[in-house]
Amino acid sequence: MAINFPIPAYFIDMVFINRLKSFITKSFFPHHITANLRHDATALTSAAIDFGHMVTIPPAAVLFPSSVNDVVTLVKLANSRPVPFNIAAKGCGHSVHGQAMAGNGVVVEMTSLNNPSRISISGSESTGFFADVGGEQLWIDILNATLERGLAPRSWTDYLYLTVGGTLSNAGISGQTFRYGPQICNVIELDVVTGKGDLVSCSAEKNKELFNSSLVCLGQFGIIVRARIPLFPAPNRVKWVRMLYSNFNEFLKDQEKLISINNNDNNGSKQKGGLNYLEGLLLMHDGPPDNWRSSFFPSSHHSTIISLVNQHSIIYCLEVAMYYDDRSRHTLDKELDDLLEGLDFLPGYKFEKDVSYIEFLNRVRGGELSLRSQGLWDVPHPWLNLFVPKSRIAEFDSGVFKDIVLKRKITNGPILIYPMNRSKWDDKMSAVIPEEEVFYTIGFLNSSGFDDWEAMEEQNKEILGYCNSANIKIKQYLPHYKTKEDWEKHFGHKWKIIQDRKLEFDPKMILSPGQKIFNP
Ligand code: FAD
Is the pLDDT of residue 5 over 80? Predict the structure, then answer.
């Protein structure tokens, strides 16, 4: 439910901010932090909303840090008060349920740390290359900077206007995950401001509990201010293919067959051949076959694809990509043909594109700009992202896609479905994924009007209710729960570790209250 911004609360905020400022002035904290702390309506309003547009939670103040030291100072200040105030790091606020908000606390607008010196590339052929990047950096800026040196990270999200701290707090997944693991498994070290206000460097060897906690931490243990990301020689171009299926089992069989090939080079420094990306999506209803995230199908085929969807109600689209450069250009087509040979997609329904590497990775941006120009970007996004174990995915198809979603007919946005391997994730981290080796990620990426998002939230509840009653052991990705009991169930056997680490790194429960794990 949207919460309005009542005047008495604002008045309390003013009292709070004045006390905060006088506390800073009277204390040993550097005075320059006051200049970066704002409580004007523009700053508060922007920190009170997110991409979801379904909750509005105003903070008392917003910090626009000019240095990492400002972040340290703020967190120390919160700790030193008899009643600590909450702090939420905010990347771009691309969360959908208020996860980067801090009611009556302080939101830290991490992007104000941004300056070009906060992306720095080092290393050599023999040691490997890496980028040291600020937690506030956008993945698109990292891509542009590293490509100038002919290098790039290899695990991505579909959309690149997300911050490093924001995606590493969740996992960071996309079609590359089956091969290279999620983004959290592609980090060498971090600098983190813990909930106690200590600035600590950590890696898999040094301060490893903090390292493993901070990745996928949902912002609970520390604020990521630097990450070291391994880099690899970047390809120039991408062969991008989509194939259509009417039969779900054949679609699954082919997806699983393809991810079982070339998934064994997680630690290798060179990108070998094989598929570099695999996703899948549903085509439904009788709208255009392309969605806002990417226009792909040739317009000359739109009407036949629409007829196919009308005939079958749901068409499954398998999407793959293979990277190449000048050296592999001549062998690419043969290698791709060999991989796709024997797949059971509908004859005649295979479509190809040949695009630059950056065009491929940044494929969602065009759709975003188009939606923005139509005023359709800053609208409610009742998203639901799930991980579903492979052994139950067929029931999920019949109970959710073919029943709930088709019956309700309110879906308005892409539905993604693609598999990944548990062995590419690191069980020492706090990520929670199904217990089976192969599991599917499902994304219901709906947009709605300001009046009808609740119907989509109802559909999301029905989907979760169905999984619960059918005992399908799903896990939410980008999770949203309101009670400690739900979080306990979500984390399962990791819950005790999460609690212990919270007491160790953020004992006053200051950080990321919007996740509602320790701050209901
Ligand atoms: P925010 O929403 O601002 O923050 C998210 C959480 O992280 C909050 O709890 C916040 O307090 C915490 N946080 C933020 N910065 C830091 C930091 N520096 N240190 C510690 N904690 C921090 N996700 C995928 O995995 N794959 C995708 O393909 C993908 N596609 C997307 C496409 C779109 C169009 C959008 C809007 C989102 C997509 N996401 C995807 C989800 C995205 O990963 C999350 O929204 C994530 O939260 C990153 O967004 P953000 O940087 O704006 O972080």
Answer: no
Q: Are strands 106-109 and 87-90 parallel, antiparallel or unpaired?
A: parallel
Cβ-based neighbours of 124, under 8 Å, separated by 6 or more = none
SS3 304: helix
- The larger pLDDT score, comparing residue 2 to residue 328, is at 328
How far is ligand 1, taken at its centre, from the CA of residue 164, in Å?
8
Cβ atoms within 10 Å of 520's Cβ, excluding its own: 11
Does CATH number 3.40.50.1820 belong to domain 3-110? no
The encoded tokens of residue 108 equal 């830290």
Q: Tens digits of per-residue pLDDT, 485-500?
A: 999 999 999 999 999 9
| 404-433 pLDDT tens trace | 999 999 989 999 999 999 999 999 998 999
Residue 107's nearest CA partner among 507, 479, 508, 513 is 513
The catalytic site residues sit at: 94, 158, 279
- CA nearest 51: which of 511, 512, 478? 478
Q: Atom 53 (ligand 1): residue with closest C-alpha?
A: 166
For residue 482, list its beta bridge partners.
Answer: none
Is the C-beta atom of 94 inside 6 A of ligand 1? yes
Q: pTM value? A: 0.94
Correct CATH for 237-477 of 3.40.462.10, 3.30.1330.40, 3.40.50.720, 3.40.1710.10: 3.40.462.10
